[in-house]
């Protein structure tokens, strides 16, 4: 049942299995039978999914994405990292192209058809072709009519094809070959059964209809590697725009739109003149917008907000009230004595300071950069509040010195040295 090629064949083998093991009333197998078209290859073996098994493509791409992006990433960062993934794929493709052009292919046999495959296919696909071509030695051919052949395995089991025999239809005059395994419909490469018939009939090259362009060395033309915007001026494409901020999306959209316009407009002088006039009009409007913005910035610098002027006046007044000419106003004495003189002086100086503050804008103070968590200032209690234990001398138990500097030890050494001398 693993290598059935038609729905009728699968239905027959499925019924035989249920009868053999008595599973007609099993709910699990009934549920599997209802969804058989989703997992049984017989029902989608004519669909093109080259060399893939179930969700291999999506799972493989998910693994690549997880190395570069995460669910919490912004859209702009996702686009930038996706560009890195694309660059990585292009680098891998260039490496494959280099290995395809630089190194020779090792063939399994000396059949002309394998030699033709080594010239036509890329290196990686040729090795797949060579592995498939090796399986031709595991089949025996027996005619089944004028244009049909049975391929019977001469071993007990053939990898990927099982124990069954396959029917191949060959129309040599038309160059048309068909095998019931449908490998060409699925992978875009002929199977080992057709290869065996081609070598038996003496065909020395793979028919053109069975060579997909995507598997050949001419899949990507050399002129397609050039820049798609090569017809546009370089200063119009780049314009010094940094492609690392939120304006990237706007820049990309406008570049694509103007590139499309340029292709459509350069066909005649009338369309070119029309586009040129519109560009000049847009440039004049952009200059007007820039001029208005420049004037608004100058007005902001010349006339700051009233709240900033008031704050500046209060700060300066407090500084002057705190001390002028070395005289400090005593706290809590009002305006009597020397402080009254300070107050009189302040009234004269403050208007001048306000007038100066109107012309000079005071910006916000620089924001401090706090790295990490701020340390908490808390009262230490318990064991943390006790004083650090001091070390004691092991000889005299004093905390002022240690045993190496103990006077009693030094005196004892001197006494011993005197006795030894006597």
From TrEMBL:
Any one GO CC term of the record: nucleus
Q: Please list the residue ranges that the record marks as compositionally biased, kind Basic residues.
A: 368-381
Compartment(s) = Nucleus
What UniProt keywords apply to this chain's record, in alphabetical order?
A: Metal-binding, Nucleus, Zinc, Zinc-finger
Q: Where is this protein chiefly located?
A: nucleus
Ranges where the SWIM-type domain occurs: 166-202
InterPro entries of this UniProt entry? FHY3/FAR1 (IPR031052), Znf_SWIM (IPR007527)
**Region feature Disordered, mapped onto this chain:** 362-390
A single MF term (Gene Ontology):
zinc ion binding
UniProt GO BP: regulation of DNA-templated transcription
Q: Which domain of life is it from?
A: Eukaryota
What this chain does, per the entry, is described as: Putative transcription activator involved in regulating light control of development.
Q: Which family does it belong to?
A: Belongs to the FHY3/FAR1 family.
Protein name in UniProt = Protein FAR1-RELATED SEQUENCE
Species this protein is from: Panicum miliaceum
């Amino acid at each position: 049942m693993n290598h059935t090629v038609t729905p009728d064949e699968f239905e027959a083998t499925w019924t035989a299995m249920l009868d053999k093991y008595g599973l007609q009333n099993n709910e699990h197998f009934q549920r599997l039978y209802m969804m058989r078209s989703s997992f049984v290859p017989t029902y989608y073996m004519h669909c093109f999914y080259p060399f893939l098994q179930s969700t291999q493509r999506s799972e493989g791409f998910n693994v690549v994405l997880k190395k570069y992006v995460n669910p919490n990433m912004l859209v702009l960062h996702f686009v930038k990292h996706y560009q890195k993934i694309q660059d990585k794929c292009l680098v891998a493709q260039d490496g494959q192209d280099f290995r395809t052009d630089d190194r020779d292919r090792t063939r399994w046999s000396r059949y002309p058809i394998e030699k033709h495959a080594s010239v036509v296919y890329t290196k990686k696909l040729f090795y797949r072709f060579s592995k498939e071509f090796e399986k031709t030695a595991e089949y025996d051919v027996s005619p089944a009519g004028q244009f049909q052949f049975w391929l019977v395995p001469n071993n007990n089991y053939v990898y990927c094809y099982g124990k069954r025999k396959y029917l191949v239809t060959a129309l040599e005059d038309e160059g048309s070959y068909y095998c019931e395994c449908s490998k060409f419909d699925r992978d875009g490469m002929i199977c080992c059964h057709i290869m065996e018939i081609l070598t038996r009939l003496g065909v020395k090259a793979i028919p053109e209809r069975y060579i997909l362009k995507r598997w050949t060395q001419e899949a990507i033309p050399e002129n397609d590697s050039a820049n798609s915007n090569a017809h546009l001026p370089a200063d119009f494409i780049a314009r010094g725009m940094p492609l690392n901020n939120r304006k990237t999306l706007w820049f990309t959209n406008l570049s694509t739109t103007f590139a499309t316009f340029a292709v459509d407009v350069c066909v005649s002088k009338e369309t070119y003149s029309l586009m040129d006039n519109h560009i000049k009009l847009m440039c004049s409007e952009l200059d007007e917008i820039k001029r208005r913005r420049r004037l608004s910035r100058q007005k902001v610098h010349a006339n700051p907000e009233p709240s900033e002027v008031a704050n500046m006046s209060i700060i300066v007044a407090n500084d002057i009230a705190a001390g002028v000419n070395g005289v400090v106003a005593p706290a809590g004495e009002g305006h009597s004595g020397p402080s009254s003189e300070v107050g009189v002086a302040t009234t004269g100086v403050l208007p001048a300071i306000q007038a100066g503050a109107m012309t000079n804008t005071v910006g916000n103070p620089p924001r401090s950069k706090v790295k990490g968590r701020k340390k908490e200032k808390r009262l230490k209690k318990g064991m943390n509040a006790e004083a650090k234990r001091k070390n004691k001398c092991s000889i005299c138990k004093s905390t002022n010195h240690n045993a190496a500097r103990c006077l009693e030890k030094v005196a004892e050494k001197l006494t011993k040295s005197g006795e030894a001398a006597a």
